[in-house]
Amino acid sequence: xxxxxxxxxxxxxxxRHPVALAIGIGCCVLAVVVGAYLLGTFDARLxxxxxxxxxxxxxxxxxxxGARESSxxxxxxxxxxxxxxxxGADLARDDVTLQVRGEKVAATVAKERQxxxxxxxxxxxxxxxxxxxxxxxxxxxxxxxxxEVGQALTVLVDPEGELEPRTPGEADATxxxxxxxxxxxxxxxxxxxxxxxGSVAARRGEDAGTSPTQExxxxxxxxxxxxxxxxPTDRRGYIKVPPEDYPAVSHRRAARIAxxxxxxxxxxxxxxxxxxxxxxxxxxxxx
Length: 287
Fold this sequence. Notes:
With about 290 residues, this protein is α+β, with helices and mostly antiparallel strands. Helices cover about 50% and strands about 15% of the residues. It contains seven helices and seven strands. Strands 3-2-1-4 form a four-stranded antiparallel beta sheet, covered by helices on one side. A hairpin with an 8-residue loop joins strand 6 (about 265) and strand 7. The longest helix has about 35 residues, at about 175-210. The protein is elongated and about 95 Å long. The two termini are about 15 Å apart. The model is unreliable at about 1-15 (pLDDT under 50).
């Protein structure tokens, strides 16, 4: 019984300020996404080590939230979602900039050149104003449309000449921004979900008490024996038992009790219940 109290005290320390910890994790995720956007590069040689380090740093605070779910899996999900959020925002960067500072210009396609073959072929266009002067900026690459030499277009032009001109439809960044926002919300939602799961686990621990007496443990073990003796089996031959009904009994102790009654305890795929049967896929190790 002496080991129960330190474990409960550790759990209490882990979940004492879960909301503040969750807010801190969320701010960290947001800062990383904004930093990736401001950095403006997604070169694998530079980004992969950084994202791996970010994921490793997330594991410890996620574990402190107290959820029983894998903090490693949650950290991996958050990293992937944050990566998509930053990448989506980066894709929208030029479109947003062009919409903010761009000028609408009536232009004509003066020249066309092509690169690549087959499906990878792309066309690039040199645009001129009606007075014959070239539109500032790089050549306009093909988007969803193909244009003919001499065709008149209305395009958004960067006065500073840094961005390629685009038609108003191709400069619409709504899709990229919505995808980026959705990925960011998914990352923050995972943090919120882990916080909620940790609070549920903490409440169950409080309801169970910090140090059950020997009498309570003996009573719950007897109750478990009765359940194993009288409960019906499901179609796969398992007896399902809700573990929250036996807070003073560990899974391994329950497996020992089942073994004494000629049953085995399933270690995997329990989905919130303990499962016992004459044969199992993976057996819980006995005490």
